[in-house]
């Protein structure tokens, strides 16, 4: 198409449509009724699109909530003061270890016999039993973590004059002890089948503390055969998953520590229970754990997320612009163009691909959330994750659908479904199901197979040594069956409903799209095969004589925007003469460009790009007739938004 250099391009995007003149009149009442229905339908579509944009914006903003909730990296101390439960009060420790025949059988059975003997020797060494005037009187107690993992540890309390109580009573106040230790299990590279991990606190006159943690702690690994080694790692309960590969591994573990509670043990205050105090250090102490959760290289994921999100917003900027233009026309009681963004998604492959990439980060969110939360997980965080996962599945399904549509078909008929109804079904169901399964996901995570446990009163309990090195399935894997059931259940339901409705209204189950070959614009757009959610019924077109004209709303749904070229001299005409000289939409030549290029074209970005990067022209429309453009790009001139027309 030729344009004078003194012209200004005018970009149009389907705010209204005009068609060739037709004869016949309808009653004023009929016209008013139809007009009201059209406005009502347009309002519904416009506000549905605005709701979609708001949802996308809210999800993007909620990502900051997850970041500030330490979803990628977290470290904390378990200050839970759950009472210790008595396991035994019989063991005695001298310089050689456990004095034979003092420990009760069920205490010895907690570990293998060689390991139990090695534990006694280690306690004697660390507590410096050889300096004591008499053997230590040792009480064994069981302690569990507060994260609902079910992990159990065996705590040793050493007394001098009597066996210490596992939990001193309120009336007894402080209880002096000569030493404390905690036994758990763990896995190391050299102990793939598990080993016992002993953390020992030896009371001394000079005790160093750092951020309330006692520094005088010794950790030892004890094999099932009784061999002993210094533990340089000092962690257990290591579990990890690789939802996005090992580079972004999601790991969690715990580390046994001794906490200095001296500052909190005010003798003048009232306490729910007593506390343990070192005989020499006079410090109130308790054994507990620090929790750690970490996503490897999470900074890369964060940069990736916000970068791809920005690109996604750029890709739907054209849809946003057209929706705002439609809203403006609606509020001004002018003819408006309206369409459902959810319906047009099958023509937005780039948008779907970027949404999939953005929402895939939620795989990491889900795995991180389940680590320490148990049944008390924040419902709000799980709701955010569920919304991301629902969007991921919906986008994957729609992108797969676009691939199916490109497969050759010998038939002129296609099945139809409703993307909007499917979306409105999938999201609520995902929120309900994923939220209801949050506790179960955490429980399954902590109930992973163990490599080695502690035998507590005849029951082998998990104590931090997991099989397979701690590798577990990701949440997305565990939830895949039910998630896919929701997606395909929603799809087949809307598929069946659409076919039944068509059969009742038009007498046929499938949609015949052979007629689209009679419309030059639709034929150039490459109609889908096998299945579609696009509004390609003949009654959605404008019929004039024996021709069917495609509305601007359908053109927008198919992913195309309008651009009209208007000579500059017309823009310079005096306002009083402009109406007389301005050509009608039918007379103007309009240039069609991709919906992705709508906003960049309005901003004249194509004028500063090399020709090979300039948006391609899909075709032109003049007098309601479409002409395909072959490889043409936008001219080096500005474009402005204008009204659209029906096209054949």
TrEMBL record:
<feature type="transmembrane region" description="Helical">
    <location>
        <begin position="302"/>
        <end position="324"/>
    </location>
</feature>
<feature type="transmembrane region" description="Helical">
    <location>
        <begin position="378"/>
        <end position="401"/>
    </location>
</feature>
<feature type="transmembrane region" description="Helical">
    <location>
        <begin position="42"/>
        <end position="69"/>
    </location>
</feature>
<keyword id="KW-0812">Transmembrane</keyword>
<keyword id="KW-0472">Membrane</keyword>
<feature type="transmembrane region" description="Helical">
    <location>
        <begin position="479"/>
        <end position="498"/>
    </location>
</feature>
<protein>
    <submittedName>
        <fullName>Uncharacterized protein</fullName>
    </submittedName>
</protein>
<feature type="transmembrane region" description="Helical">
    <location>
        <begin position="413"/>
        <end position="435"/>
    </location>
</feature>
<keyword id="KW-1133">Transmembrane helix</keyword>
<feature type="transmembrane region" description="Helical">
    <location>
        <begin position="350"/>
        <end position="366"/>
    </location>
</feature>
């Amino acid at each position: 198409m030729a344009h004078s250099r003194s012209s200004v391009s005018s970009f149009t995007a389907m705010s209204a449509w005009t068609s060739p003149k037709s004869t016949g009149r309808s009653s004023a009442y009929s016209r008013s009724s139809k007009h009201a229905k059209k406005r009502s339908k347009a309002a519904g579509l416009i506000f549905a699109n605005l709701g979609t944009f708001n949802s996308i914006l809210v999800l993007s903003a909620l990502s900051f909530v997850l970041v500030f909730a330490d979803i990628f990296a977290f470290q904390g101390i378990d200050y839970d003061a759950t009472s210790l439960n008595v396991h035994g009060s019989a063991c005695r420790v001298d310089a050689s270890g456990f004095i034979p025949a003092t420990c009760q059988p069920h205490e010895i059975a907690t570990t293998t016999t060689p390991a139990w003997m090695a534990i006694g020797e280690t306690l004697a060494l660390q507590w410096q039993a050889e300096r004591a005037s008499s053997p230590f009187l040792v009480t064994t107690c069981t302690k569990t973590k507060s994260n609902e993992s079910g992990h159990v540890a065996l705590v040793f309390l050493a007394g001098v004059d009597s066996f210490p109580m596992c939990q001193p009573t309120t009336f007894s106040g402080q209880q002096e002890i000569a030493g404390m230790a905690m036994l758990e299990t763990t896995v190391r590279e050299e102990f793939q089948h598990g080993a016992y991990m002993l953390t020992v606190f030896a009371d001394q006159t000079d005790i160093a503390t750092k951020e309330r943690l006692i520094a005088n702690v010794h950790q030892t690994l004890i094999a099932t055969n009784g061999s002993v080694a210094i533990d340089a790692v000092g962690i257990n309960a290591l579990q990890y998953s690789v939802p996005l590969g090992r580079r972004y591994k999601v790991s969690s573990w715990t580390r046994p520590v001794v906490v200095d509670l001296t500052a909190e043990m005010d003798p003048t205050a009232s306490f729910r229970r007593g506390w343990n105090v070192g005989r020499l250090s006079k410090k109130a102490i308790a054994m507990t754990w620090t929790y750690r959760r970490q996503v490897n290289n999470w900074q890369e994921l964060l940069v990736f997320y916000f970068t791809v999100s920005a690109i996604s917003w750029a890709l739907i900027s054209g849809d946003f612009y057209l929706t705002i233009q439609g809203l403006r026309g609606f509020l001004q009681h002018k003819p408006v163009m309206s369409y459902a963004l959810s319906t047009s998604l099958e023509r937005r492959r780039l948008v779907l691909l970027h949404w999939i990439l953005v929402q895939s980060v939620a795989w990491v969110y889900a795995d991180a959330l389940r680590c320490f939360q148990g049944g008390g997980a924040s419902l709000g965080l799980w709701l955010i994750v569920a919304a991301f996962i629902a969007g991921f599945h919906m986008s994957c399904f729609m992108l797969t659908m676009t691939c199916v549509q490109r497969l050759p078909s010998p038939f002129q008929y296609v099945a139809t479904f409703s993307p909007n109804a499917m979306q409105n079904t999938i999201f609520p169901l995902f929120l309900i199901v994923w939220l209801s399964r949050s506790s179960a996901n955490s429980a399954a995570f902590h109930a992973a197979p163990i490599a080695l446990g502690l035998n507590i009163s005849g029951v082998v309990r998990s104590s931090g040594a997991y099989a397979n090195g701690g590798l577990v399935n990701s949440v997305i894997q565990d939830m895949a069956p039910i998630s896919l059931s929701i997606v395909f259940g929603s799809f087949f339901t809307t598929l069946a409903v659409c076919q039944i409705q068509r059969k009742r209204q038009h007498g046929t189950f499938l949609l015949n799209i052979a007629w689209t070959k009679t419309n030059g614009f639709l034929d150039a757009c490459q109609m889908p095969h096998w299945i579609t959610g696009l509004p390609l019924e003949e009654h959605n077109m404008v019929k004039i004589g024996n021709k069917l004209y495609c509305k601007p709303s359908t053109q927008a749904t198919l992913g195309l925007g309008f651009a009209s070229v208007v000579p500059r001299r017309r823009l310079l005409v005096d306002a009083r003469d402009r109406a007389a000289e301005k050509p009608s939409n039918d007379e103007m030549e309009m240039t069609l460009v991709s919906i992705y290029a709508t906003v960049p074209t309005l901003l004249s970005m194509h004028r500063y790009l090399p020709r090979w990067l300039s948006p391609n022209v899909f075709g032109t429309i003049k007098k309601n007739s479409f002409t395909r453009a072959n490889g043409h790009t936008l001219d080096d001139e500005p474009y402005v938004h204008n009204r659209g027309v029906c096209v054949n």
